Fold these 4 entries.
Entry 1:
Amino acid sequence: MLGTRVIVGFLLAVGGFFVIARGSWIYFVVMALLALLALAEFYRITKPYRPAALAGIIALFFMLYFGWWGTPTGVLGALALTVALSFIIVAWGGPRKGVTARMAVTILGPMWIGLGFACLLLMRRLPEGMSLVLIVVFGTWAGDTFAYFVGRYFGSTPMAPRLSPKKTWEGFAGGLLGTVMGVVLIALLAGALRPDSPGVSSSQALLIGLVIAIVGPVGDLFESLIKRDVDVKDAGRFLPGHGGVLDRFDALIFSAVAVYFLSVGFLSL
């Protein structure tokens, strides 16, 4: 299992680097497919709540469209569309017990998954977009990798035993160190790929790394809570050794939102 995890992780890293560096329509298509798969996994595991999947899928499409060709305001407008669509679809059958939970779960999908992937699209369009997306993707994965191995071999203090029994504070510390180191290194490498660009400075990379190191594990625990509620181990089996798309991208979804607004609102990247 560990060998499969490493091989699949390596292939994802190589493919991810190519797609992010290339940008263009390839980047949009890959992000859109991953977002659709993640949303499908979410609606599948929350099937007991009977989400109106069609409403979420339509809203996701418009969120991704505005993320690549529109504006952040358009993304938020498309998210708001989920509320109206979920109401229309759910209310079609008249008032029934559980409709509130059904609409809430429907809206949660685009709000969680759609917003994260829309931010990855918006981020790639920024002046330092390529560097930032490389940083958030590989910085998050570096943190996951360090946390996994440090927790596996040195972890002894449970971090959130009721949500994720295998997570430890030792693993978190290892992930924090790995994330910060990884982000600073990636920023330097990304800057070397674009010598004509100001790039992301070491101090900016350090701040971004700290944010990812804190927000990423929250995203992981967020998905763990949902999986505990619906009593599933993995969101899917799309990625051997890693589970589903949600299992691999849960931390990244949270990190992408945080880094995008950090970059635009505070760092002016």
Entry 2:
Amino acid sequence: MPRLSYRAIAIAFAVELVVDFVISMFVFSLFAGDLLAPDMAEGEFDTVVRKVMATTAYVPWMMVFGTATTVGGAYLAARIARRIPYYHGLAMGIVGMLYILITWDSGLVWPNILGLLITIPASLFGAHVARRHMPQES
């Protein structure tokens, strides 16, 4: 079996996490709107989080953006590694699934289950796109 570039996987996963965090904060602030205040107490913020999660389309949008960053992360890992893109995409999918299992949210179960089901195919798609942009080996 060809060797994976663990460096490429680590860099791509770190970038994916940062992009996920930035997107989630931006989208949350859009959905929360004027419910957020700069001097909120922690309890007040928790109330806003519950309200946004229960009454808006925040979770479905984050599922869409999360899937897009999964595709992008696998693409990036394959491009950084410059070889065996599908193996790197699969590795990114496995790391993503482990991350979902470690950070499992018992409050909302369906996004976790959907994330587990989508992660590997989305990662392989990202690797496929990367392969199409890589020079052909002779």
Entry 3:
Amino acid sequence: MPWGLKRYQDTGQSHFVTFCCYHRRPLFTTDANRRIFENALERVRRNFRLRVYAYVVMPEHIHLLVGEPARDTLADALKSLKQGVARRLIGNANHFWQERYYDFNVRNHAQFVEKLHYIHCNPVKQGLCGRPEDWPWSSFLHHATGCEGRVEIESEWAARQRERAAGRLCQAVELPHSSQNRA
């Protein structure tokens, strides 16, 4: 994100977030490093009560589709995430990640679906796999099948599972922005 741009947080909107490794170095090329990122994302999700709708771990960058955290700000949650990963992988938060991050406010259902699709198709577009389901370092399989991974994903699958656990099955849950006017 260029310097001087204003972030619009505390809006109740979802956020499409991208951040990169320092000088776009491919620091997520091993399963172990990718697992460390996923575990850190789950820790931040729980600690900040952050809704994670989608994510993908690419070799040199990360994409997230998240809500605003119930505790603190999105910037605080991302800072904790980036510092935690850097400490576990190289011990130096200053040279693992590029400073700052790109943040796009998702204002309607069409944008939400567009960003969800972009995140899950990114490994295919970059030539890392042939199909989204072949890249295990994303939330695609959860959205396609409901199977649980290292990161709890906010979805209709998860909402139904919570209802079953509570002893009541609800009707289909709409994704964010679905109650807004669709263009």
Entry 4:
Amino acid sequence: MARTRQTPIGRFGGVRLAQRRIRTSETLENNKEAVAQELIALGTTSITEIMNLDGSMRPLDEIPDYALRAIKKIVPMPDGRVSIELHDKVSVLRILAKAAGFLDNPEKENDKPSIVGINMRGPAATTEYAEVVDDEK
């Protein structure tokens, strides 16, 4: 009896990439709520939750955890103050709006043609001429 060999699919092109994508999408699917909460925290944090209006930093125990996660960079200044940079709020809010469907405009998309770029050609030009004679005598 002849033995049959199965070729392992792991060596074919693109299989490892597809397997990696599946694992990544499963991870994101399982942590969808945590990702959404993090994006909401980044998009809604205000600098006044970290700094006082006079420019001084609030005590660390008064700053909420989500506001601390929204900090991108802290740079100490020579005069003892600190410069705080938050993550880009506009890009985070754009991601949230897209995920929530706010940027989808179905009414606008209905006006778009479904097929674009059709070149139509008619039959070859053949013209017949006929002479009409009026018999009025």
